[in-house]
């Protein structure tokens, strides 16, 4: 235990001023403070983001801006009860629009009857050959298909449309993969 000794110097009958100070709690406090400062300095460095964008400043003239064309995407609208609408677009540019009659074929799988749309699958395969972006055997990306549905659409119809989109396959390095990745847009 640390202590402080203060000598009064003489024997004049005064009381001794020797007292003991416990320095351990003070040292513990300083250690905790130092650790806190070190940790906050490290975390503040890790949380820093290096940004060199000049927003809303003028564009940089020393770098050439590469114009990237948005990829073509297939939107399958199933909002009408009598038809599907297929729309191929890239960004705001519409490349093609077509309608496919909504004729389902019921198929019995075990004890359940499910709906299939073979006309939709055929039309998607035909249009993908013309408008699809990722058809090369070495291209690991797949095209994007967005299913636009109403909230009142039955789940079985949504699954049937997904199955129609996934019937189209392509090869990637000799293996057969789906030609589309499916996402949803609901309203």
Please provide a written account of the structure.
- The protein is an alpha/beta fold and 187 residues long.
- 26% of the residues lie in helices and 29% in strands.
- The radius of gyration is 36 Å and the shape is elongated.
- The N and C termini lie far apart (74 Å).
- The mean pLDDT is 80.
How does the SSE layout of this entry go?
Elements: H1 24-46, E1 73-77, E2 83-90, E3 93-101, E4 105-109, E5 112-116, H2 118-131, E6 143-149, H3 155-166, E7 169-172, E8 175-178, E9 180-186
Parallel strand pairs: 1-6, 6-9
Antiparallel strand pairs: 1-2, 2-3, 4-5, 7-8
Helix pairs in contact: 2-3
Strand arrangement across the biggest beta sheet: 3-2-1-6-9
* Percent range for β-strand residues: 25-35%
Task: Determine the mean pLDDT.
Answer: 80
For the largest beta-sheet, the strand count, sense and barrel status come to: 5 strands, mixed
Alpha plus pi helix count: 3
CATH first level of one domain: which class?
Alpha Beta
What's the total number of strands?
A: 9
């Amino acid at each position: 235990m640390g202590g402080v000794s203060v000598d009064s110097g003489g024997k004049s009958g005064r009381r001794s001023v020797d007292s003991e100070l416990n320095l351990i709690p003070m040292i513990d406090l300083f250690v905790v403070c130092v650790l806190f400062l070190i940790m906050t300095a490290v975390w503040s460095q890790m949380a820093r983001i290096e940004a060199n964008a000049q927003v809303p400043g003028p564009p940089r003239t020393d770098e050439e801006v590469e114009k990237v064309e948005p990829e073509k995407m297939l939107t399958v609208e199933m909002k009408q009860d009598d038809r599907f609408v297929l729309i191929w677009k890239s960004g705001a540019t519409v490349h093609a629009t077509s309608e496919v009659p909504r004729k389902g074929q019921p198929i019995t799988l075990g004890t359940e009857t499910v709906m299939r749309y073979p006309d939709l699958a055929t039309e998607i395969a035909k249009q993908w050959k013309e408008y699809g972006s990722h058809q090369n055997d070495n291209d690991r990306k797949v095209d994007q298909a967005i299913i636009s549905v109403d909230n009142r659409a039955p789940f079985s119809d949504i699954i049937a449309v997904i199955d129609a989109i996934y019937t189209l396959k392509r090869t990637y390095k000799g293996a057969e993969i789906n030609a589309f990745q499916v996402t949803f847009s609901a309203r």
